[in-house]
Amino acid sequence: MVNPTRGVLYPARLPQFHRLPAPPEVRHLVAWFWIPEWDIEPGRSSRQEVVSYPALNLVVEPDAVTLSGATTRLFHRDLSGRGWAVGALLRPAAVPALEPDPAALVDTARAVAAPELHDGVSAAMSTGEGHRERAVAAFSRWLVANAPADDDDARGANAVFDALFGDGAALTPEEAATRLAVSVRTLQRLTRRHVGLSPAAMIRRRRLQEAAQRVRDEPAVDLASLAAELGYADHAHLTRDFRAVLGIAPRGYRSALRE
Description:
Layout: E1 16-21, E2 30-39, E3 46-50, E4 57-61, E5 64-68, E6 75-79, E7 82-84, E8 86-90, H1 95-98, E9 109-111, H2 115-125, H3 131-146, H4 152-165, H5 173-180, H6 184-194, H7 199-217, H8 223-229, H9 235-246, H10 250-258
Antiparallel strand pairs: 1-2, 2-7, 2-8, 3-6, 4-5, 4-8, 5-9
Helix pairs in contact: 2-3, 4-5, 7-10, 8-9
């Protein structure tokens, strides 16, 4: 199921925002599509803060197509004026065709020369009701023509991501390696080749997302119990990770949500 706001720290501040499921023909390539649209009055801006998924995103905007690497820190963007974006959260199988060295793209982005993708998505976004679905369809057609088919290598790469970030995901790299019947070293090679991060970094990202969402959804949650549930050594470990990436402790985040 597509979670509409996981990873978004302050959903109440969002402009119009949608996550759409990937059509069947690209489910091996895309986890989901995300589409923000905004129209902010002159002189004002809206800061969006996100603990991004440990994955690459291919993004179409009115003036560019970009490929963003996985991130290791809090990402933010200040929105102003009027605009939109259509992004695809890429599954690992899609990455080799778009970026031979995803580790070099961590915490940064590069322009992609894809005029057909840009023109098709932009045309769809300029239409009336149903424009998001038409944009996703145009994006999917481009991916089918330019990314790998669903083969054994693609399924193997995606299985790694699912073991580290899917439902019931592993709490440690060792657990993930056991599930996949590979060595930890092989697991490390696979994640660096297809995501650019180590398995441990991907797990840390997932735990932070889950911690932030639980604090947001359950304001009274006991933080020590939450830390144990998510595989942290103790409450202090959770607080250190939370503060290192988000710049704020869990208790401070809980207070900020009330403002």
